[in-house]
Amino acid sequence: MHSPHVPASALVIIPTYNEIENLESIVRRVLDAAPAVHVLIVDDGSPDGTGELADRLSSADERIAVIHRTEKNGLGAAYLAGFAHGRAAGYPLLVELDADGSHPPERLPALLSAVTDDPTGRVAGAIGSRWVRGGSVVNWPWLRQVISRGGSWYARTMLGLPVRDVTAGYRVYRSDVLEQIDVDSVESRGYCFQIDLTRRVHGAGYELVEVPIEFREREAGQSKMSSSIVAEAMLRVTRWGIDRILRRP
Questions:
Q1: At 74, phi and psi to the nearest 5?
Q2: Per-residue model confidence (pLDDT) at position 2
Q3: What is the reported pLDDT for 98?
Q4: Burial 58-82, CB ≥16 within 10 A → b, else e
Q5: Which site among 189, 228, 230, 238 is 20 to 30 Å from 73 CA-CA?
């Protein structure tokens, strides 16, 4: 695994599985938008050649590193591997970004600034949000919007979270806060991973700032969303919510 010698302030983690049509473009856009960051591609053994493309990109640019995993083990596990790598290498900020182009890299400077410009020390991270003023979605069918908005509302209500887009996957986190919330113990796999981290950060007394983005449905490749991912989120959120209610004095 190639790794940059001198850590930048932020490591952008991009999980991939069969993203050969999107990867080069999204990496280029990230580095164009924020040339000082480094990129870590975490490939889950893609059979379409995504891992080999990632290696070629890494060989051509020392800001790009690659982790090869042997099996498709879920978004959460890929991010945990990326977080562990980034924390060990000393990156103060760790970024979650989809490979499919749905998250605009051009908004990355705004997300990073929302964390680094905080004078209070209470901001643990930033979320690229679809559901705050100025945020939007493009090319999404109405049913997908209903599921996403409904899922965010349910999680926000059950868990008492002051975040509009609880399931958002475009995020910046401070490494030191991830250490404090014991991120390595997170077991959630699908987008429930995002809800789990949100509730842990909030429970530790930190804030997440929401930065509006335009979310675009992928144009190439296949979505990884499935009914099992939705079911996992619903079950876990319900259990966490009941536990929260029972703990109230």
A1: 100, 155
A2: 43
A3: 95
A4: beebebbbbbebeebebbbbbbbbb
A5: 238
User: Going by DSSP bridges, is the β-strand pair 136-138/214-216 parallel, antiparallel, or unpaired?
Assistant: parallel
CB 27 within 8 A of CB 60: no
pLDDT tens digits, one per residue of 123-178: 999 999 999 999 999 988 888 888 888 888 999 999 999 999 999 999 999 999 99
- For residues 85 and 2, is the Cβ–Cβ distance under 8 A? no
Tokens of 14: 């991009």
Spacing of C-alpha 202 from chain mean position: 17
| Per-residue tokens: 183 | 């991120």
Helical (H) or strand (E) element with 5? none
Flag residues of the chain having pLDDT under 50. Answer: 1-6, 224
Strands 38-43 and 123-129: unpaired
pLDDT of residue 5: 45
Question: In three state form, how does the secondary structure of 32-53 look?
Answer: HHCCCCEEEEEECCCCCCHHHH
Whole-angstrom distance, CA of residue 179 vs CA of residue 236: 22
User: Who's near 153: CB < 8 A, 6+ residues apart?
Assistant: none
- Only one residue has tokens 């409904």, namely 150
Mean of per-residue pLDDT scores for the chain = 90
Q: Are 240 and 159 in contact (CB under 8 A)?
A: yes
User: Which residue reads 């996992």 in tokens?
Assistant: 232
Q: What is the DSSP letter of 154?
A: H
pTM for this one?
A: 0.90
Q: Partners of 65 in the beta sheet? A: 40
Q: How far apart are the first and last CA of the chain?
A: 50
The full set of domain ranges for the chain reads 10-247
